Amino acid sequence: KACYPSDGEDAALLKEKLKHTKITDKRLLEAAMYAPQWIEIVAGYLGWEGLRSAAWYFHAHINEGFSAEKETIVAHYSPIAPQDFNDGAFDIHWFHEAYETLGEERFDLLYDCAKYISAGANHRRSQLFADATLGKLKRSEMEKSVEDKRNKDHLLTYSLIPLAEPPESDVRERYDFIQKFLEQSKKFGAQRKASEALVSRIALGNLARNAGYDDVTRLVWDMEARKLDDLRSYFEPQALDEATTIQLVIDDEGAADIEIVSKGKTLKSIPARFKKDEYVTSLKELKGDLVDQYRRARKELERSMEYGTTFMVKELRGLLGNPVLAPLVRTLVFKAGDHLGYFNGDTLALTAPSAEQHTIGEEDKLIIAHPLHLYESGRWSEFQKDLFDRQIRQPFKQVFRELYLLNADERANATVSRRYAGHQVQPNKTVSLLKGRQWTVSYEDGLQKVFYADNLIANLYAMADWFSPADTEAPTLETVQFFDRTTYKSVPLEEVPPVLFSEVMRDVDLVVSVAHVGGVDPEASLTTVEMRKVIVQESLRLLKISNVRLDGNYARIDGNLGEYAVHLGSGGVYKQAKGALHIIPVHSQHRGRIFLPFLDEDPRTAEILSKIALLAEDQKIKDPQILAQLQA
Known about the structure:
Layout: H1 11-17, H2 25-34, H3 39-46, H4 51-62, H5 68-77, H6 82-87, H7 92-102, H8 104-113, H9 122-133, H10 139-149, H11 152-158, H12 167-184, H13 190-211, H14 216-226, E1 238-239, E2 244-250, E3 256-262, E4 265-266, H15 278-307, E5 310-312, H16 313-320, H17 326-330, E6 333-336, E7 339-344, E8 349-351, E9 357-359, E10 365-368, H18 371-377, H19 380-390, H20 408-413, E11 416-417, H21 427-435, E12 440-442, E13 446-451, E14 456-462, E15 477-484, H22 498-514, H23 528-543, E16 548-551, E17 554-558, E18 563-567, E19 573-575, E20 579-581, H24 603-616, H25 624-631
Antiparallel strand pairs: 1-2, 2-3, 3-4, 5-10, 6-7, 6-10, 7-8, 8-9, 11-15, 12-13, 13-14, 14-15, 16-17, 17-18, 18-19, 19-20
């Protein structure tokens, strides 16, 4: 294993050296599988067609580690990331190619030799995968094992068993089974929940490849769009007795409900005499399924925007044909090339707020526009105004989503952001918030979020024990950093994709806003934010400032140089159609200058109030750095 072939050493030399020895072909294969640098020479010596591909197939699916050279070679055969192979991803096309080229006898021999690759259980797992792909395992047995024992390897195996006829319904049933497994994992602890979420993601990827989809997203959207095909009859009135009918209905925003009409009058609830009716019971189950679908679709659409997932025109048309998904898709702003607008499936065009239309082709690819794209287009405010004018509610924050761009300090520090340094947070609430945004928690690494497509890991550093109530000093946030997922080297902030950077900073800002440790017990009377709202309201009255209104957790300011929003939790400042502003507070300067109705020190409230007063009279600002941002 420590030796590598020298120049001039090839299959012919190996053949010469092996003369008059008792070394068998099997022993030679075992050596090559143990030390893959010899695969080329051994493959040349044996002359087996497809041996090289099959050997690397086993190394990709069984080995726990990937060197740079191995990653490069495996990438020649499969688009699957090395980490995904380690987690249980399976390349069905590669398997069939290797199996059919080598033949069953040679493939089985090579499989036996592959036990020298792994020191763990991956060798056994790869045999399970191969047996499943060849149809040697029963789907019902795998389902039972997953349901009774929550066996992760069997869930991965379950998605690889050949599809039954018709394949569409089989794929849908397996998709629902994996989603159910993921839903049930919520009742377990953080580590098990995270591991089962990872296995579910990999299992969906295996199912997508088994069913012939290009990627998991295509599978997810197709399954969600097809779900209602079998439910059409339930949207028609069904008679329960001579005067009463019942049916499923979906409102303008895509939310499902049960409508029961008796003698021409819509009832608020189902009468007790019908509650055990078989049809009513099935309607309740279907309503629950549609509610889950609606919730999943909202999360998946938001995730698609964050990760820049592309959509084909035919896929969007399919989503618009689903009464649950259509209201969600119709209100979102899409981007095709340099054009932004609402997708119109009838005219195949993107419609801007000005009614201007950009025609798109059947083969064009679209993405859900991120605020960064709206900001770069210079038309962000048009879409914001349009939503207000037409009173449109989006399924998630898109047009009014906060945008975070690199500030001067972050550009200067290159690899570290200290934007939120010094903020004290409540550990339990912080973990709860970030886990819902796909962050993970560990003793060694703290809070992390992995971006597989970009090969990046976001790390939020704070001196804290995230697994205890932290009865002593509350943890203080320190830095946000990004690391390469393969080398674990620090990545300069300027090289981090801007959308990814903005979303990570938005997550941290959410923590600072909601889980911040206030100067008083937030449970005592009002929450910290509500308290600040009252203080700001009274201060504005005393200062006779009339161009500020309070809206939820924000103070909205109509200034001369633009419209602003100051978050009453974090103190973050945003300008409409511009994104986050970088205004550095000097807390000691607030003392004695800003009136607070209590003596306890609360620099955050003073900071927020001073920012509101500053921006309310933005025509008087002299600071060149602030002016440069406002006038940009």
